[in-house]
Amino acid sequence: MGKAKAKAKQAKGKMKETAGKAMDDRGMQAEGRGEQMAGKAQEAAHDAGERMRKSGR
Length: 57
Known about the structure:
This protein is an all-alpha fold. The chain is built from two helices and no strands. It has helices spanning 3-22, 26-55. Helix 1 (3-22) runs antiparallel to helix 2 (26-55).
């Protein structure tokens, strides 16, 4: 997954978390936080892959 898709997943999660707060829906808030964390993990994996490619491995 590319960095742009990972950032989009983080943004979607943030919007879902905010909507959950507005509607007092703790389940939606948790789901949004989960999406944000998944997006951050995907971004970190992408960055690690880029560093490995740049180092010649």
